[in-house]
Amino acid sequence: MSTARWSGAWARDGRPDDAPDVDVLIPTVGRTAELATTLAGLAAQTDASFRVVLSDQSETSDVASRPAVAAMVRVLEAQGRPVTLLTHPERRGLAEHRQFLLDRASAPAVLFLDDDVWLEPGSVSRMLDALRTLGCGFVGSAVQGLSYLADRRPHETAPFEPWDGQVVPEVIRRGSPGFERWSLHNAANLAHVAAGLDVEPGGWMPYHVAWVGACALYDRAALVEVGGFEFWDRLPVGHAGEDVVAQWRVMERFGGAGIVPSGAVHLEAPTTVSDRSVDAPDVVLGPA
């Protein structure tokens, strides 16, 4: 299943027999247009081997039946990209929902993709190539808000530091020097960084990160080895930063990196997570 079926083969019977390289795990709640856009971005990843696992926490549990979403699911299936549709109505917080998805993954790599991110064609293949080449625990394509393309912030892009050689484990905590890299992923900062680099089309450059939200590809075995998101029961339902905990744990054991250019675009829709009163790293990890 290395490439998507083209439209001339959509009506052929049968599904691919080979296992996918990547499970794309998408938690969603209360979104239709954004989710359909996210799935359309995946349908454009014609050179990548993946399946999609979508878990719906909306009150009506019917997001997959809404026309725009259903149409994109049909496209993915016709391309030979299996889509598993799940409902998970009990709301126990972001970390629990991510663990629910991780428990259903089987591919060597898992891409946690938020339901409001569009991916440039080739993005999944680039991330997978980076993960395999670097041999680390995760790579991420940080999301960019393209409404900020005219808003240059050199003081926020100053922490950019490419990886020189092998990606090695790092310990990041609030207040540590590496934590200051968080500003790289504000606004359209990474697009501005990329514009100043000489990366050939289709290529990538690894760089040091604090963490990468919304679009991170993990070596599944590495993520499971550090416990995944099983810490969810230590958190109240209202929390954020669960991906930070998972990535910091992976970084400490296996290393992690971002890649630039990033083909991930944040749709800049209002958040569906209204209660962020607890920051997961403070509860689960504490200071370095």
Task: Characterise this structure.
- There is one protein chain.
- This protein starts with 21 loop residues before the first strand and ends with a helix.
- Strands 3-2-1-4-8-6-10-7 form an 8-stranded mixed sheet, sandwiched between helices.
- It is 27% helix and 17% strand.
- It is built from 9 helices and 12 strands.
- Helix 1 packs parallel to helix 2.
- With 288 residues, the chain is of the alpha/beta class.
Short structural summary:
With 288 residues, the protein is α/β, with parallel strands linked by helices. The protein is built from nine helices and twelve strands. It starts with 21 loop residues before the first strand and ends with a helix.
- Averaged pLDDT, please? 95
Low-confidence stretches: none
- SSE topology string: EHEHEHEEHEHHEEHEHEEEH
Radius of gyration: 18 Å
Helix coverage percent of residues?
25-40%
Key descriptive features of the protein:
288 residues; alpha/beta; eight-stranded mixed beta sheet; two-stranded antiparallel ribbon; 9 helices
Question: SSE layout and pairings?
Answer:
Blueprint: E1 22-28, H1 33-43, E2 50-56, H2 67-78, E3 83-87, H3 94-102, E4 109-113, E5 117-119, H4 123-134, E6 138-140, H5 154-157, H6 189-195, E7 205-207, E8 215-219, H7 220-225, E9 239-240, H8 242-254, E10 256-260, E11 264-266, E12 278-279, H9 280-284
Parallel strand pairs: 1-2, 1-4, 2-3, 6-10, 9-12
Antiparallel strand pairs: 4-8, 5-11, 6-8, 7-10
